[in-house]
Design goal:
The structure is a homodimer of 453-residue chains.
Chain A lengths: L3 E3 L9 E3 L23 H4 L5 H8 L4 E3 L2 H7 L7 E3 L1 H7 L4 E6 L10 H13 L4 E6 L3 H13 L2 E7 H6 L1 H9 L3 E5 L5 H9 L7 H14 L3 E3 L6 H20 L6 E5 L4 H15 L6 E7 L4 H4 L1 E6 L8 E6 L21 H8 L4 E5 L1 H15 L5 H20 L4 E6 L7 H8 L10 H9 L7
Parallel strand pairs in A: 5-15, 6-7, 6-9, 7-8, 10-11, 10-15, 11-14
Antiparallel strand pairs in A: 1-4, 2-3, 4-5, 12-13
Helix pairs in contact in A: 2-11, 3-5, 5-6, 5-11, 6-8, 9-10, 11-12, 15-16
Amino acid sequence: METVKFLLDEDRIPTHWYNIAADLPSPLPTVLHPGTHQPIGPGDLAPLFPMALIMQEVSTERTIEIPDEVRDVYRQWRPTPLYRARRLEQALDTPAKIYYKYEGVSPAGSHKPNTAVAQAYYNKQEGITRLTTETGAGQWGSSLAFAGALFGIEVQVYMVKVSYHQKPYRRALMETYGARVVASPSDETHAGRQVLAEYPDSTGSLGIAISEAVEIAAQRDDTKYALGSVLNHVLLHQTVIGQEALAQLEMAGDYPDIIVGCTGGGSNFSGIAFPFIGAKLRGERDVRVVAVEPAACPSLTKGRYVYDFGDTGHYTPLVKMHTLGSTFVPSGIHAGGLRYHGMAPLVSHLYNLGHFEAIALQQLETFAAGVEFARIEGILPAPEANHAVAGAIREALRCKEEGVGKTILFNLCGHGHFDLQAYMDYQAGKLKDFEYAEEEVAMALAGLPPVNG
Amino acid sequence: METVKFLLDEDRIPTHWYNIAADLPSPLPTVLHPGTHQPIGPGDLAPLFPMALIMQEVSTERTIEIPDEVRDVYRQWRPTPLYRARRLEQALDTPAKIYYKYEGVSPAGSHKPNTAVAQAYYNKQEGITRLTTETGAGQWGSSLAFAGALFGIEVQVYMVKVSYHQKPYRRALMETYGARVVASPSDETHAGRQVLAEYPDSTGSLGIAISEAVEIAAQRDDTKYALGSVLNHVLLHQTVIGQEALAQLEMAGDYPDIIVGCTGGGSNFSGIAFPFIGAKLRGERDVRVVAVEPAACPSLTKGRYVYDFGDTGHYTPLVKMHTLGSTFVPSGIHAGGLRYHGMAPLVSHLYNLGHFEAIALQQLETFAAGVEFARIEGILPAPEANHAVAGAIREALRCKEEGVGKTILFNLCGHGHFDLQAYMDYQAGKLKDFEYAEEEVAMALAGLPPVNG
């Protein structure tokens, strides 16, 4: 069966990021100061981010030019291929057309370098010599380590302790790129020491690791903080994915009826979907968009749309988002990149306005889909990406039931080369499904900041 | 610093493999029957290989057409990119131009699928439903598992026992693609049982695993054997690499003065170098070619050019090749793909005729080169590929010393995502250099078959 691949010439790497803020039917809710609960301005973020990124965070310009230096690095692996999954269509016996964009060709193996490179560049421009960040499974940490190596910026990664020990190879990749990796909670920060004092055996969480990274960055002028998802500027940088997909589908003479994306913090979902949702918001072209989240961490389908912190230590500003509560610690599913209590404010806002749907899938269904995909299409997806694969298969089977030949697009956001323990456990029957812990979420939500009234 | 990448359109995937046998100044020495020591004909190989591959094995046609079905699968990741390593050139402060072809973009992460796909296709055409093979580090086994999944052929991999236990993730990848993986020596074969009877704790070797895979294939009509290197048809299939590189260098307005390739069995070296060595043999264009082998397994620089077996159990035909003796077991360096006692007959013949040079490098130098490359160019090479990187760096530094701006081409044959234990050990100071075991080689060579006189 023929491979159907759509490649763009490298001069078709987007010249601008697409900023969906320009097309929102109503503006994003204000960001609030964590202490005063008053609206914050760009200056309040200056200890953590370079001004260029802060201006992107608050921009409402529809397009923002990508610096040549960033496009020059993108060129190493972009434009990424768009495939038509003909073999999968045939195996499912569906009249649907299934296309997937493949971001696993980046040196770090996922879509994360799209923003890591941009963030490293802007920090370098403003004289920053060190970046701190957090990482769970390690996709983000290794991407920032890669970008730091290219731009000569020191990178310090607070890695959730359980992953630090369980995923030594991800750590080794970061260290090979020259990053310093610290198990979090650590005794290097006030936030870490506080957790360790109360829970000496704490295995850590993304929320704690964020607190540590933010604390260090806030202390020193030569050091800033970098986040791999959630924030507006991060989502902005990922829109190169959807813009390329749009051009590639044009080559194929197609336009998606349905877009499926997996959601953790929201960056890969935004990357593939925002350019299409933007066209819908502008009344140009309709599209149905489905976000797929893990049942163990269902911030869109089960969370509340309220103000919450981005971290456990409550150092970050308060943002309005779909959240399970910033103290909620999701079960240990293998899709570590989707284990975050909140959802990006932009994604939350659009969901609240009804511009896309969301479903929550169980772990076993997503791994079954990943194994099927690997055998049929030849590419082993990351556990996070398995959620998109499973969602796309559901849609394709629905098309079969209904006898309609719709066009489905999804983003295969990364490969699973670093996740083979999860595949081993799945094949050995050791993985299980997780209901999300309803009482724990209720408890976490009960502790929301009083600003929610 | 700008990324300089040369991409070919997919209609530039080569339509033919290049067969260097057509351009040899003298023919390859005859292949001998392992029992009778008489020359063998195509029919003798029929229990192990489909006739189409046997005919390629003995062909002297300069070009052999690539079936459309094989090119259709190649299209998933081919043409692979050619990069100019501008950042590395700058870091080395060399007047040399360094280009590298990157084969790590294949779904299995190395150049091995180039032949795995072709072999699976021809076996499928001849009604074969099962393939057996051996694998050490797992690059080859996972490539054949991938190809088997695409063509609906069952794959059974005898994996060297020490790797089976040390590299469970490689095994998991093969199993995810649907292959059956057996630790070798096993009790499933006469060859395996014989070894286990004598050495119950044997950790296995490629030579033993080959014996097991060959034994099983020879027993059943529906089962054939597949080899990932050494044989003429395997080297033939890899020539897509060099042919693409030639076209890409033409785009760059360049031609290599020096080609560097790492050598284990010889397939990746042949893939990048044969199209250029062919042009040299035909008197069209000169080129200097350097093979880089591990000091722990130096078949070209320290082996003898004699008739030897391909396996330990002595099931395979006798071929004339540079060998350290088929019973020699190399030290446990991490470049598992380079741990083979012999060298492909075609490569050995060309070396014997003086058409290229060879050097042997120590493990630590190759890992230092790999880490430097990852930090500067952003791609983490496999330990095997580190030999090519180190060789290219040596040549670039020599250009600097001599003040000459030569053009260097090397093949980055695979990524190191499955080799992070090796990088961890390297960074922890746990890796060491290995002299090859001179007495063991002497002993292994003393046991060469009497056909050598």
